[in-house]
Amino acid sequence: MSSISALLDGFSVALAPANLLWASLGVFMGTAIGVLPGIGPALTIALLLPATFSFEPSSAFILFGGIYYGAVYGSSTTAILLNTPGETASVVTAIDGHAMAKQGRGAQALATAAIGSFVAGTLATAALTFVAPALVTLALKFGPAEYFALMVLALVTVTSLLGTSLPRGFASIFLGLALGLVGMDVQTGQARFTFGQLELLDGVGTVIIAVGLFAVGEALYVVARERFHREEIYAIKGSVWMSREDWRRSWKPWLRGTVIGFPIGALPAGGAEIPTFLSYVTEKRLTKHPEEFGKGAIEAVAGPEAANNAAVAGVLAPLLALGLPTSATAAMMLAAFQQYGIQPGPLLFQTNSQLIWGLLASLYIGNVMLLVLNLPLAGLWVRLLLIPRPWLYGGILVFATLGVYTLDNSLFDVALLWGIGMLGLAMRMLDVPVAPCIVALILGPMAEQHLRRALSISQGDPLVFVSSPLAAGILGLALAFLLVPLLLKLRQSQAVSP
Amino acid sequence: MLRMTSYKPYGVAFGAALALLGAAMIWVISLLPDTAAYAAVGPKMFPRLVGGGLILTGLAVIREAMSIVPGDEDAIEYDVLPILAISAGLIFAAFALERLGWILTATVVFFVTAWAFGERRRLATIAIGLALSGGTYLLFNYALQLSLPAGILRF
Fold this sequence. Notes:
The complex is a heterodimer.
Chain A: H1 3-14, H2 17-35, H3 41-48, H4 57-82, H5 91-102, H6 106-139, H7 144-160, H8 166-181, E1 183-184, E2 191-192, H9 206-225, H10 244-266, H11 273-286, H12 299-322, H13 328-339, H14 348-351, H15 353-374, H16 378-384, H17 389-408, H18 411-429, H19 435-457, H20 464-467, H21 469-496
Antiparallel strand pairs in A: 1-2
Helix pairs in contact in A: 1-15, 2-4, 2-15, 3-4, 3-9, 3-13, 4-5, 4-6, 4-12, 4-13, 4-15, 5-6, 5-12, 6-10, 6-12, 6-15, 7-8, 7-19, 7-21, 8-19, 9-17, 9-18, 10-11, 10-12, 11-12, 13-19, 17-18
Chain B: E1 2-4, H1 7-30, H2 45-66, E2 76-78, H3 81-100, H4 102-116, H5 122-143
Antiparallel strand pairs in B: 1-2
Helix pairs in contact in B: 1-2, 3-4, 4-5
C-alpha cells in the first residue's frame, strides 16, 4: 500500500468526530501546558497515562500527538512575552522574541512564530509521511546487534549534544539505566535490585520517574529559588499584524528552519533543541541585518520556531518506525505504547496501520487547528500566565499525586514519587540534565534485551557488533559523537593556553 | 537557607556518590544466585556494565569538579523551608491518602504547596484546593472508572 492511499485511510480515522474531538483537546491542552511554566508535554503525557488506559489506542495517540505539537507552539508564547521558555526548544526564541516584545512588537513575534510553526509543522509532517515507511524498510533489515547499536547511538547523542557538561550528561544517562534495571529480569525471572520489596518487582514505573523528575523536582527547585527570581510580562500592544516587511523577512527562515529541523529531529540525535540553535546561527549568517540579532530580529524568531516544530515531526519518525525514542516526550509516548501492549517498530505499520496513519493524518489536522488557536487567541493564552504561581504549582503537585496513585492504587508509589522528586531537585541544583535520564530509563531495558539476544545468537562472541557492517557503522558514529566534542574542546583549550 | 557558593564540593560529592552507587550495584548483583547457563549472557552482565559506567562517570564528574577554580562562580541561594514544607505535604499524602480520602488529602497537598510558594490567602486557597480535588474525584470515579479513595467523606 502506498503512503498516499494509506494516508487517505488515516484521514478517515482522524476525521471521525470522536477523534477530531481528541485532536482538538490535545492541541488545546498542549498549547496551555506549553504556555504554562513548570509543566511540559512529557509530564502531561505521563500524567494522562492512567486516565487514558481505557481509551482506544488510536484516540490516545491522537491526543498525545496534539499535545506534543501544541506544546511547541505554546512554549514560544512564554518565551516571547515572558522570557521564560516553556520548553527547552524555545530557549533560542526567547532571545530575540523577548527583545521584540520589549519594543512593542510582541504580536509580530508571536505571529511569525505561529505561522512559521504551521508552515514547518505541515511540511515536516508531510516529510514524516514518506520518511517513516522508508525507515521501516530499512528497519526490517535490523537484527538485535543493529538495534543495540542504534540505542547506544541514541544515548550518546542525547547526552553529547544536550547540556554543557559531558560527565554530568552521562551521570544522567547512567542513573536512568540503573533505575531501569530495578525489577524482575524478563528472561530469567530473577529479581534485581528490589531489596525484597514486592512493589519493586515490576520495576520503578516510568511514569513515577518522569512525574517525579519533571513535576516534583521542578516544583521543589522553583520554590527554593522563588524569592530570587523576578519576571515581567510584556503586554501585546499596537498593530497585531505582520507588515509586508515582516513577511518578506520571515518566509525564508521558515523554510530553512524546516529543512534544518526535520532531519535532525529524525536522526537518533535527540530532540528539538539543537536545530533551533543551528537555525539561529544560520539566519544570523545569512541576514542583511546581523546587527539586529539579539536585539529583536524577526528572522531569529521565525527560523528557530520553524525548526523546533519540524524537529518534533522528525522525532516521531524513529519513534514510530524503529521504536526508538530520542526525546523525553517521545520516551513517554513509547511508555504509552507499552501500556497498550503495542511494540512500536517496523511491524507496527502492518499490524496497526490504522493507528499509525490515523495519528499521522491527525497531525496535519492538528497543525491547522493550532494556527487557528494561536493567531487570534494569542492574547487569551497570555492570560494563562496570570494564574498565581502558588496555585499553579499546587495544582501540578495535586495532578502529580493523582497520576502516580491511580497507576496502581499504591501508596508506596506516592512515597517513591517524593523520593524521585528529591533526586530531581538535586540534579537541577547540580545542573545535571533530566531528559537523558528519562530516555535512558526507557531505552535501558530494551538495549539490554537486544544486547543479550545478539550475544545469544553469536554464542557470546562480542565481535557480532563489529562483524555486521551496519552495527559497526552505527557504533562508529556513536563513538564519533562522543569524541568530536572532546577533541574540539581540547583544541580550543590548546589554542587559548599558549 | 542554603548558599551554594561553588559547585566544586557538591560536584565532588555527587561524583563520589555515583561511583559508590556503581560499586554497590556490582556488589549486589554478584550476590544473585547463578542461573543455569542456557543463555550466553545472564541477568548479571548488563548491571555490571551499568555499574562500571557509573564508576567511570563518577570519576569524570569528580575530575570535572576538581578543575573548577574557586571564585569564578556566582553564589546561588536556595530556600530550604519551602522544600521541607512541600516534602511534608507529599509524605503526608503517602500516609493519609487511603484513610482520609482523595478530596481532603489533595486539598492538603494543594494548600501546603501554595503556602510554600508564598500564598497567604488561606480561604481562597482551600476553596480552590477543594474544587480541584472534588472535581478530579468526580471525573475519575464517575467518568473514567478509576477509583480514588473516598476516605472519611463517604457520600
